[in-house]
Amino acid sequence: MIQENYSLTEAQIQHFEVFGFLVRRNIFTAEEVAKMNEEFDRRLTAVLEETDPERKRFIYWTNLTAETPFIASLANDPRIYLQSEQLIGEDSVFHNSGSNSFPTGTPWHPDRTDLNVCSIRSAMYLQPTTADCGALRVIPGSHKNPLHEELLRIGLWAPEDKAPYLEKSGLSGEDIPCYVFESEPGDMITWNEQTWHAAFGAYKDRRTCNFDFFGNPKTSDEIASMRSLAKQGKQYQPWWLENPDNIPRRERWINWLKEWGWIKD
Description:
Blueprint: H1 10-19, E1 21-24, H2 30-50, E2 59-62, H3 69-73, H4 78-88, E3 93-102, E4 106-109, E5 119-125, E6 136-138, H5 147-154, H6 164-169, E7 179-181, E8 188-192, E9 197-199, E10 206-214, H7 220-230, H8 238-242, H9 248-260
Antiparallel strand pairs: 1-8, 2-3, 3-10, 4-9, 5-8, 5-10, 6-7, 6-9
């Protein structure tokens, strides 16, 4: 049965704060997942036609386009935004949705290493995953120090080559203690972007849809980090910025992104 009350319990919020991730099951219906896969198929076909064969190891595109209207609309769905507001503040801001098609596994890494940036990602796999077949793995508690920095120090992350820690220890990525998010389409996992994660046992076209939110910076360190991060800016499609349905929450997000410099005039 699809959950009708989308608010998180205090136990769920505490779990996220302590362990750096939260799993919710059966959030979307089979019909909704089918719509996502239809839009995914169309965009994947178009992106592959435009992509250099040498760069097809990792395929990514934004969902905030008129070509993927259903997936784009999900940022305004309480199943997505409400839990983000509960976890990182009612003034949290949606800033991105992307889809990925992975033909390989993903080594251990955090999405961010600046702990002054409050950001979370919610992701759903569009096919079933298991420990041996592409399931996301997370290291509980790795969004906070000392564990976060300790994993950096020992060399668990290597963007290009095999991680130094794995080389020296003789271990594989699968040997690292973790929680394995085995999932069915419609399940969702949300993690603090400082949380270390990975996936192994990949298969061709491992599909994910992601939804990313920033917490509104409050302290001087958080403000400085956000200003620095925002200098890179983002390219947003005019269709999304025009907010054709006049959704107040999206308008607030867009205004925030402009104020911080994510959207360049």
